Amino acid sequence: MITKTHPTLISDVLASNFGEVVNEFFAQDRSLRSNPLLPAIDFIEKDKSYLLRASLPGLNKKDIEIKLDGNRLTLNAERKPVKSEDEKKHIQEIRFGHYSRTVKLPRNADVSKIKAEYENGLLNLTIEKKKEDQPKVIEIK
C-alpha cells in the first residue's frame, strides 16, 4: 500500500520563503555580474558616522568624481583602455568604460561633513551623522 503524505503548512511557508530569499540573493548577484562596470560597494553604519566603501581598482583619483544632489550621492568614474602600438591582444577580460553608482543617504547623514579618501583601489567616504534633536520638555504653567 502506498501512502501519500502532504507537506505541512509550515514546511510550505518555509519552502516558499526560502525560495524567495534565494531568488532575491541571486538576482542581486546577477545584477552586479551583468554590469561589470557597476562598482561594488559596502555601506556601513557606525555610532557617529556612516562609511561608504567602493571598489574601484585600477583608477587614479583624477578619474573619480563624487556628486551630491540633496541626499543622493553619486560616484562616477572612468577606466580608459591602455593602448600600445606594439601589442597584439590574445585575451582581453579587463573592462573599460564609465562607472556610475548612486546611493540614497539616510536622513540623519550630515551631507556637509563628508570626507573622501582613495587608496589601493578602495574609495572610502566617511559621512558624519547629524546630532539628534533632543526632545524638548515643555513646562506647564
Short characterization:
The chain is α+β, with helices and mostly antiparallel strands and 141 residues long.
What does this molecule look like?
This protein is α+β, with helices and mostly antiparallel strands and 141 residues long. The protein folds into 2 domains: 8-36; 38-82 and 96-131, Sandwich (Immunoglobulin-like), CATH 2.60.40. Helix content is 18%, strand content 38%. It has 1 helix and 7 strands. It has one helix at 9-34; strands spanning 41-45, 49-55, 64-69, 72-79, 97-104, 109-119, 122-129. The strands form 2 sheets. The chain has a 4-stranded antiparallel beta sheet with strand order 1-2-7-6, with no helix packed on it. The protein has a 3-stranded antiparallel beta sheet with strand order 3-4-5, with no helix packed on it. β1 (41-45) and β2 form a beta hairpin. The radius of gyration is 24 Å and the shape is rod-shaped. Residues 4-16 and 28-33 have low confidence and may be disordered.
